[in-house]
Specification:
Order of helices and strands: HEEEEHEEEEHEEH
Radius of gyration: 20 Å
Strand order of the largest sheet: 1-2-3-8-10-9-5-6-4-7
Strand content: 15-25%
Helix content: 10-25%
Largest sheet: 10 strands, antiparallel
Number of strands: 10
Distance between the termini: 63 Å
Structural class: alpha+beta
Number of helices: 4
């Protein structure tokens, strides 16, 4: 191999390493799932590759978004505080990940926290209805947003990202999205950094997930995004643990 070829290969390798940046928790939070930033897709969005790992998860009520977060933070937090079959305590992690169906607001949501050390260490079995989920490596399109708990603004930002991905001809799962809430769990020091929207990229390099012929046109997605800004804001509903149902009805 010629010296020129070696230099070219080295340059390509260095460029790839520079492009794949290691993860860091937003806002200085201490423990979050590890990922690599693959590349910047848009000025304010990027593609990340998340390592596989174990998440503690449970269904969450399709109530107001604030109530969903408070409910999930409370009951999932119990697992980290020792309410598991081995009475073991674990370090709290961030973000609280809320997964929802953007086309069916009445569908049950899913809430989860990453379990630190779950990829290498033994984790304690949770108590029903909380469960442990082993997630494989996943790729997400990510866009940051402010800490708003206003669901209309969150949905506006979500549909706008979906529309932008269609414009860029990037395949994605158009049915479920993930809201990464880094302001949970709540600590003594208020979190001041951004939260995020995660939309999954297909795992294979073959045909796009829900091929582009099945994707909603970008113009319609932009229109849906704008329509959310005119919707009535959700009413205030405090989360009171003593009054909350610990299990949700089947759907």
């Amino acid at each position: 191999m010629s010296l020129r070829s070696i230099c070219l290969l080295a340059a390509v390798a260095l460029a790839f390493i520079a492009n794949c940046e290691a993860s860091s928790c937003p806002g200085g939070r201490s423990t979050c799932p590890t990922y690599e930033r693959v590349h910047t897709l848009l000025p304010d969005a990027e593609l990340r590759r998340y390592n596989g790992g174990i998440w503690v998860s449970r269904d969450a009520p399709p109530d107001t978004f604030t109530y969903t977060c408070e409910y999930s933070n409370f009951y999932l937090g119990d697992y980290f505080r020792g309410l598991n079959y081995e009475e073991r305590h674990f370090n709290l992690t961030t973000p609280l990940l809320i997964t929802l169906d953007v086309w069916n607001m009445r569908a049950k949501r899913e809430a989860s926290f990453f379990v630190q050390g779950g990829t290498t260490g033994r984790v304690a079995p949770p108590m029903f209805p909380t469960s442990l989920v082993t997630e494989p490596e996943r790729w997400y399109y990510v866009r940051q947003m402010d800490q708003t708990m206003d669901f209309t603004k969150i949905m506006h930002a979500t549909f706008k990202l979906m529309a932008d991905l269609v414009v860029e001809r990037q395949p994605f799962d158009q049915n479920k999205i993930h809201i990464a809430m880094y302001n949970y769990p709540k600590g003594k020091k208020p979190f001041t950094g951004p939260n995020e929207i995660w939309i999954e990229k297909p795992k294979t390099s073959g045909p796009p997930m829900n091929g582009f012929e099945d994707m909603m046109p970008a113009e319609e997605l932009y229109a849906i995004a704008d329509s959310w800004l005119y919707m009535e804001k959700e009413p205030e509903k405090p989360f009171i643990p003593e009054l909350a149902a610990t299990t949700l009805p089947a759907q």
